[in-house]
Design goal:
This protein is mainly α and 77 residues long. It has one domain: Homeodomain-like (Arc Repressor Mutant, subunit A, Orthogonal Bundle), CATH 1.10.10. Helix content is 56%, strand content 0%. It has four helices and no strands. Bound molecules: zinc ion (ZN). Zinc ion binds next to helix 3.
Length: 77
């Protein structure tokens, strides 16, 4: 949901790499090359960045809709 802060397996900090990784991959660079450039060598850390899906904004929309619906029907939020 959120960008990875640390590798689940080895604990290496990764949060500072997320924005650059995401921007460069979205610009069309191969993800493997970006990870090499960023110095992410261990496969446990590479999978953290490669497999992250940030959908917190997507989920937040549903909380807004849920709150609106509960107001409409008079339920508890
Ligand atoms: Zn790791």
């Amino acid at each position: 949901m959120m960008p990875p802060i640390r590798c689940f397996t080895c604990g290496a900090p990764l949060g500072h790499l997320w924005e650059e990784f995401k921007a460069r991959v979205e610009a069309g660079e191969p993800p493997g090359k970006v990870l090499d450039d960023l110095g992410v060598k261990r496969y446990c850390c590479r999978r953290m960045l490669l497999t992250s899906i940030t959908y917190v904004e997507e989920v937040a929309k549903y909380y807004t809709l849920k709150a609106r619906r509960l107001r409409e029907v008079g339920g508890l939020a």
